[in-house]
Amino acid sequence: MKSIILIAVSIFVTRQVTWSQSIHDLARTGTVTLMEEHLEKVPSDLNTISEQGMTAFLLASYRGNNAVAKLLMDKGADIGYCSPEGTAIYGMIYKDNSELIKYVLEKGHSPNDTCQFSQFGTPLNFAMSLRRYSIISLLLDAGAKTDNLNAQGQNLKDLLLFYKDEQLTKLFKSYEK
Fold it and tell me: Which of 85, 108, 136 is the last residue of a domain?
């Protein structure tokens, strides 16, 4: 009997804690089920900006909570929101989250995002600087522009010379054909 009471109390306490979590907390560490429950109760929270200027989608994608990020995107989250830290795609590149970048690009997000252009250039420039080869391929497959200058005025050929990275050079040559 004691174990049944303990289980019931544990479930109740867990539910109380979960219900008081913000959408931003759930985006970081929550589950799809908990996020769905939260959005059923407070659908207006979907694109709410945190005190730090972040959306739930941005936080979920940065933390690698891909299942929750996909749910938020499918529910209509603004994936192009330009926070002080940039859009989610820059965080995905930084975290090397190919799975979520592929999903976002398949859903029609532009590979030519310029939210953090002055700092990192386009997502393609940023991926090049971090040597994220699989992400570079995804961006190129999605139509990333290769004729843009970066924030320092360098074109693609200048960057390839600067990086002196044989794998990058081969990758871009394969897309020239």
Answer: 85
